[in-house]
Amino acid sequence: MTTLGKLYETGVNALKKAGYDDAVYSVRILLEELLGASAAVLYAHPERTVTSDDEKRVNLAVERIADGEPLGYVLGHSEFMGLSFSVDPSVLIPRPETENLVEWILEEQKGKKACFLDIGTGSGAIAISLLTFDPAMKGVACDISEQALKTAAQNAQDLKVSDRLIFCQSDLFTNVPETRFDFIVSNPPYISHKDMEELPPPVQREPETALYGGPDGLDIYRRIIREAKEHLVPGGAIYFEIGYDQGHSVPALLQEQGFTDIEVRKDYAGLDRMVRAHAPFIY
Ligand code: GLN
To answer: How far is the CA of 54 from the centre of ligand 1 (A)?
Structure first.
């Protein structure tokens, strides 16, 4: 039998030894989630005993993380916009910087009864958050991966927005309903060939189809932007998450296709992270 304090220390040391940056944070979360022991309990009662079953469960989770598995996959869920999303290896774990994109969309679209298309929805984080924070919105969420769509549909059900969200399995626009959307949103795979080689180990466990954007990272933007106008109402908006070094290239692609009002915004870290543009009214 061990104590909470010792279990914490062993876990943190194991993760640090594995070269893991967020050792303290991750072990705290594991103790809280697996044993119900919050940070407050840990500090007030490090002497509290832990059963050998609980010890095994925590150590196993620590081993998986040390082995490079993302914390979200080990826990089976991840937080985004204050909501809990189920995640599994078929979907990208929602990133905090993507919250900035959702906030921007809400700022511009909330209350307009907008109907949107989310391309490459993954866990559904973007679409489901939009619907949660704007009860007047409706949307279609597509993904090429059947497994990702199952996860997203479960999330939509758990977060009680399924009545306003339609899912469709589609390679970008190929299979989306024939309608014109008020706006399109996408966090497509945008990592370049060169940057793929330097992904941190936990990111390497995430689906390549959600990360790799072709040699220069722009392949999917090119495909979406080429066809987007045909799926938008005149003047409709398009919102993209972009890579830190795509603040010029993605706007240039949008401009080539006649999009206007192109604006790039940065994330919390001060890096270019998202772009919004409007389709022309007449074309
Ligand atoms: N932001 C993600 C990462 O850092 C990449 C997401 C994407 O390609 N859309 O790994």
So the answer is: 34
